[in-house]
Amino acid sequence: MKKDFGDSISNKVYEYRVLARMSQQELAEKVGVSKQTIFVMEKGNYVPTMLLAFRIADFFDVDVNEIFTYEKGDHGNDV
């Protein structure tokens, strides 16, 4: 059974995309995913693979940590 630590990944994909004046479809085509993937990622309902996260960061020419932020949950005393 998997333990839920409550960790999450937030992102600034929407902000970077809007600043670049791109549609979700345009960004999706540039990084090799569907428009739906970009949509759910921007809504916070999908955590991308590391490969996709790096592709997006590379496309915007920024460090992956500029777009994606790890937020540690409550691990209690177990970790």
TrEMBL record:
<dbReference type="GO" id="GO:0003677">
    <property type="term" value="F:DNA binding"/>
</dbReference>
<feature type="domain" description="HTH cro/C1-type">
    <location>
        <begin position="13"/>
        <end position="67"/>
    </location>
</feature>
<protein>
    <submittedName>
        <fullName>Cro/Cl family transcriptional regulator</fullName>
    </submittedName>
</protein>
<dbReference type="Pfam" id="PF01381">
    <property type="entry name" value="HTH_3"/>
</dbReference>
<keyword id="KW-0238">DNA-binding</keyword>
<dbReference type="InterPro" id="IPR010982">
    <property type="entry name" value="Lambda_DNA-bd_dom_sf"/>
</dbReference>
<dbReference type="InterPro" id="IPR001387">
    <property type="entry name" value="Cro/C1-type_HTH"/>
</dbReference>
